[in-house]
Amino acid sequence: MAEVLLNGFLGCGRPVSEGKLSSAALSGREREIVQLLAEGKSSKQIASHLALSVKTVDTHRGNIMRKLHLHSLSALVLFAVRNRMVQVAIFPADVPPGTQHHFVR
């Protein structure tokens, strides 16, 4: 089921967001932060990874959400998936996780 839903989201083949903006509206640093957030990293982890303060990461996050007209982290993750900023692992129901990986690019 997850694969069907994901294919539906990715099927359009062009970047889409709630605000009709593409990832091109973001700076390089903002795109990097979107990718890390979509991968499940916390602001503290991102700050450590990028040698920034947590406040700076949170400021970038707020700017990203404002620019893209997004109102939740889940909407941001969906934006990242639709714009192919992250890879999504798909595990078929009959294959135990960790046995085989399939990636959608």
Strand coverage percent: 5-15%
Along the chain, the helix and strand elements come as HHHHHEE
Helix tally equals 5
Average pLDDT works out at 78
Number of strands: 2
Percent helix range:
40-55%
- Decide which structural class fits the backbone: mainly alpha
- Rounded to an integer in angstroms, the radius of gyration calculated over CA atoms is 15 Å
- Low-confidence segments: 12-20
Report the CATH topology name: Arc Repressor Mutant, subunit A
Topology:
Blueprint: H1 2-10, H2 28-38, H3 43-50, H4 54-68, H5 73-82, E1 88-90, E2 102-104
Antiparallel strand pairs: 1-2
Helix pairs in contact: 2-4, 2-5, 3-4
Give descriptors for this structure.
105 residues; mainly alpha; Arc Repressor Mutant, subunit A; two-stranded antiparallel ribbon
What this model shows, in words?
By secondary structure, this protein is mainly alpha-helical. The protein has one domain (14-104): Winged helix-like DNA-binding domain superfamily/Winged helix DNA-binding domain (Arc Repressor Mutant, subunit A, Orthogonal Bundle). It has five helices and two strands. The chain has helices at residues 2-10, 28-38, 43-50, 54-68, 73-82; strands spanning 88-90, 102-104. The protein has a two-stranded antiparallel ribbon. Helix 2 packs across helix 4 (54-68), helix 2 crosses helix 5 (73-82) and helix 3 (43-50) packs across helix 4. The longest helix has 15 residues, at 54-68. The chain is globular, with a radius of gyration of 15 Å. The two termini are 18 Å apart.
